[in-house]
Amino acid sequence: MKPSFAPSSPSTIHTDSIPSVSIAVIYHSNYGHTKRVAEAVVIGARQQLPEAQAKAIDIHDVDWGFVDKADLLVFGSAVYMGSVPAEFKTFMDGTSKRWYNREWEGKWAAGFANSGGLSGDKLSVLQQICLYAMQHGMNWIGMPLMPTGHSDDDLNRLSSFLGLMTQSINAPPEETPGKGDIDTAIWFGDHLAKTIIKHQPAR
Q: What is the distance between the alpha carbons of residues 38 and 29, in angstroms, rounded to a whole number?
């Protein structure tokens, strides 16, 4: 039996029912682990949206045209010294003109954090990202999924509700974060897409 968050076949999307919304998953990843989480969130979102309407975007190569038009911005970061890395903070500070002109006001926002420790102060990073979104006047979407348990294969095993939390050990990104965290990221992406589709403006 396929899990409920298995990617849908593109053939199931009909042109008369394609949602008009889009999602940009904006991330910073030095070693590939946070990138893998971002890509999993996109996989989940593409269960509800066409491929072109959900993209993972590295902060070092930002498609500003897509980002500024997107209905939902998902911000993802590793945790360095209890905070977002300097590169991600530079990205945040670089949007100050958009902040001043209220260009992102009213958009949806969400976030995820990845660290090596089970806690790793991921909550601090999610709070930092959430506050950043509030500065822009955005609407935050949390993680409403109850934990299915606390083993490596369980969904939301880290019991996070402000946003998505994942853990990666000292191993290649192909191996970590583990199955439960990646499946949770896929679930989160699917949930985010369903949420903004539900609230999209009437055509």
A: 9
Tokens at 190, concatenated:
């699917």
* Sole residue written with tokens 């269960």: 47
Q: How is residue 8 written in tokens?
A: 């849908």
Q: Please count the CA atoms within 13 angstroms of the CA of 160 that sit on its side-chain side.
A: 32
Q: How far apart are CA 162 and CA 60, in angstroms?
A: 26
Question: Residues near 42 by Cβ (< 8 Å), separated by ≥ 6?
Answer: 23, 25, 54, 55, 56, 189
E strand segments, 38-138: 54-58, 72-78, 108-115
Q: Residue 15: pLDDT above 60?
A: no
Beta carbons of 23 and 71 less than 8 angstroms apart: yes
For residue 131, what are the contacts with CB-CB under 8 A and spacing of at least 6?
none
The letter for the amino acid at 5 is F
Helix (H) or strand (E) holding 24: strand 23-27
Residue 176 backbone dihedrals phi, psi, to 5 degrees: -150, 140
Mean pLDDT, rounded, for 77-93:
96
Write down the pLDDT at residue 203.
59
Reported as a single tens digit per residue, the pLDDT across 19-51 is 899 999 999 999 999 999 999 999 999 999 999
What's the pTM value of the predicted model, to 2 decimals? 0.90
Separation between Cα atoms, residue 90 and residue 101, nearest integer Å: 19
Amino acid identity at 9: S
